[in-house]
Write a structure and sequence with these properties.
The chain has one domain: HIT-like (HIT family, subunit A, 2-Layer Sandwich), CATH 3.30.428.10. By secondary structure, it is an alpha+beta fold. Helix 2 (52-58) packs across helix 3. The chain contains three helices and five strands. Strand 2 and strand 3 (39-45) form a beta hairpin. The chain has helices at residues 7-12, 52-58, 60-76; strands spanning 20-23, 27-31, 39-45, 84-87, 103-107. The chain has a five-stranded antiparallel sheet with strand order 1-2-3-5-4, covered by helices on one side. The longest helix is centred in the middle third of the chain and has 17 residues, at 60-76. Helix content is 26%, strand content 22%. Bound molecules: guanosine-5'-monophosphate and zinc ion. Guanosine-5'-monophosphate is lined by residues 7, 16, 18, 30-34, 89, 95-98.
């Protein structure tokens, strides 16, 4: 899957609207369309990688920038002090639906057990 048929590449390209909360040279952070917590932001590399493992192997620098952006988003969203969860679903057993690497930043309330 490449840029043309990837949902998140299309968001990066501005072809699909998103509520962007932060943008850096190499990353974009926007609100999840179906939030699972009071704060639910997705942080993605602008470049297409199918998942976090592929991204980490191909580009440690952008991987670090995704993590740093997630930390800043958590701070700006007001969840850093009380805590939050950072999730990278990876592959079929994780339920990953969008094959473009993304971190979920989840918080704003007690999140309950790690897995439902
Ligand atoms: P995954 O299951 O791949 O880890 O997470 C994909 C996430 O993308 C889901 O939480 C889903 O709600 C979100 N999502 C799917 N389509 C859209 C969209 O068009 N816009 C936004 N902002 N989020 C989306
Ligand atoms: Zn993509």
């Amino acid at each position: 899957m490449g840029t043309d048929d990837c949902l998140f590449c299309r968001i990066v390209a501005g072809e699909i609207p998103a509520t962007v909360v932060r943008e850096t040279d190499k990353t974009l952070a926007f609100r999840d369309i179906a939030p699972k917590a009071p704060v639910h932001v997705l942080v993605i590399p602008k470049e297409h990688f199918v998942d976090v493992v592929t991204m980490a192997e191909a580009d440690p620098e952008v991987t670090a920038e995704v993590m740093a952006t997630a930390a800043i988003v958590a701070e700006h969203e007001g969840v850093a002090a009380d805590g939050f969860r950072l999730i990278f679903n990876t592959g079929p057993d994780s339920g990953q639906e969008v094959a473009h690497a993304h971190a979920h930043v989840l918080g704003g309330a007690p999140l309950g057990p790690m897995l439902a």
